[in-house]
């Protein structure tokens, strides 16, 4: 055993992003072999939130449709512990089912006409409601009690974006209590009230980060970190009200969702993202980034493999900015098997050269 905490020693990550059908077809042997082939040191495992992959005791916590009596999350945690891997419980938490909405309609976002905001068939929860203050902390504590993960990630923790104003009672009352007035009527950057609303929302997201961090530390110990997840591009961070400076100052590691290049930004964006985020996080801390092994953003989205050269060039740009690799597959079974071979040479190269890739951290500590 090492006394170095997981957030300082885990340099390569893997994630099989589970889908609802996966409890009936997840191949433990295959994925354990893939962990070994790619020489990862940590895994991100879907636990709960929008979909539970374990038998939650909370009746409102929706279980994966093919879960049955299985604890898939717990099974994968057991496998990972046997392989000596760091375990991060992945939450995806800002939406819920119609049954949940009917039980607690006051916990969900609404437009100015009182209609709930939705993502597909799910209702979007309000960050100013008991959903965030009571329900999600209770799920985090339940996951810790069952499996004692090393930490938590959350892909949808920041809630509704800046292009939509929530007019629910929670937001109406809290904004009036804070600023003595009504919510802005529409998205309008020339409106002083709208600009105040933006800062108010940013502050609330930072409070959510702190709140969840306190929950995990109290229930799981000081090294059980809630890390959330942040986007790489600055525009995406702004749209989700994420103040990187504030969250970085209280974080020992940041998880980044910046999976592929876009046509306008190109490969160089990844180096810029790493350099910019390290500028606020510090170069002595790790910055793992989810990287898509599947085709993303065009064509047969998520069903086919990303070309290897595309993944490797994107990753190399990230390495130049101080980013650590994290392979990411959507679902546990794919017809296009080429994506399984993409990470192996890249991750093996990273293992051989990781001391050079992390040299900036050593140099900063040197006199």
Give your account of this protein's structure.
With 367 residues, the chain is α/β, with parallel strands linked by helices. 42% of the residues lie in helices and 14% in strands. A nine-stranded parallel beta sheet has the order 8-7-3-2-1-12-11-10-9. A three-stranded antiparallel beta sheet has the order 4-6-5. The longest helix has 29 residues, at 192-220. Mean pLDDT is 93; it is low at 360-367.
Mean pLDDT: 93
Low-confidence stretches: 360-367
How large is the share of residues in beta strands?
A: 5-15%
Instruction: Tell me which oligomeric state these chains represent.
Output: single chain
Order of helices and strands: HEHEHEEHEEHEHHEEHHEHEHEHH
Taking strands numbered 1, 2, ... along the chain, how are they ordered across the largest sheet? 8-7-3-2-1-12-11-10-9
Distance linking N and C termini: 30 Å
Number of strands: 12
Keywords:
367 residues, alpha/beta, nine-stranded parallel β-sheet, 42% helix, globular, disordered C terminus
Brief digest:
This protein has 367 residues and is an alpha/beta fold.
List the helices and strands and how they pair.
Elements: H1 6-9, E1 13-17, H2 28-38, E2 42-49, H3 72-82, E3 86-92, E4 95-96, H4 98-103, E5 118-119, E6 122-124, H5 130-147, E7 151-154, H6 169-179, H7 192-220, E8 225-228, E9 230-231, H8 234-239, H9 244-248, E10 256-257, H10 268-281, E11 288-292, H11 308-320, E12 324-330, H12 339-357, H13 359-365
Parallel strand pairs: 1-2, 1-12, 2-3, 3-7, 7-8, 9-10, 10-11, 11-12
Antiparallel strand pairs: 4-6, 5-6
């Amino acid at each position: 055993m090492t006394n170095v905490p997981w957030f300082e020693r885990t340099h390569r990550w893997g994630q099989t992003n589970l889908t609802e059908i996966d409890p009936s077809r997840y191949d433990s042997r295959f994925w354990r072999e893939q962990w070994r082939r790619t020489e990862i040191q940590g895994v991100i495992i879907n636990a709960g939130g929008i979909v539970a992959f374990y038998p939650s005791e909370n009746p409102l916590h929706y279980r994966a449709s093919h879960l049955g009596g299985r604890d898939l999350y717990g099974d994968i945690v057991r496998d990972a512990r046997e392989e000596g891997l760091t375990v991060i419980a992945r939450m995806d938490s800002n939406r819920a089912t119609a049954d949940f909405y009917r039980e607690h309609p006051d916990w969900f976002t609404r437009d100015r006409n009182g209609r709930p905001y939705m993502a597909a068939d799910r209702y979007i929860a309000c960050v100013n409601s008991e959903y965030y203050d009571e329900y999600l902390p209770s799920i985090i504590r339940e996951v810790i009690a069952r499996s004692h993960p090393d930490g938590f990630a959350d892909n949808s923790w920041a809630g509704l974006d800046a292009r939509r104003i929530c007019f629910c009672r929670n937001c109406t009352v809290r904004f009036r209590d804070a600023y003595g007035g009504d919510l802005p009527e529409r998205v309008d950057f020339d409106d002083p009230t709208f600009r105040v609303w933006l800062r108010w929302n940013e502050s609330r997201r930072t409070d959510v980060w702190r709140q969840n961090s306190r929950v995990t530390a109290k229930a799981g110990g000081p090294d059980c970190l809630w890390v959330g997840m942040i986007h790489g591009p600055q525009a995406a961070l702004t749209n989700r009200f994420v103040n990187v400076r504030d969250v970085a100052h209280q974080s020992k590691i940041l998880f980044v969702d910046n999976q592929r290049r876009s046509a306008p930004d190109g490969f160089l964006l990844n180096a810029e993202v790493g350099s910019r985020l390290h500028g606020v996080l510090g170069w002595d801390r790790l910055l793992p980034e989810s990287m898509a092994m599947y085709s993303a953003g065009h064509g047969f989205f998520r069903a086919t493999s990303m070309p290897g050269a595309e993944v490797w060039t994107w990753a190399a740009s990230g390495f130049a900015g101080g980013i650590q690799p994290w392979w990411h597959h959507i679902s546990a079974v794919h017809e296009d098997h080429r994506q399984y071979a993409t990470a192996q040479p890249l991750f093996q190269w990273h293992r051989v050269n990781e001391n050079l890739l992390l040299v900036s951290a050593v140099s900063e500590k040197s006199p």
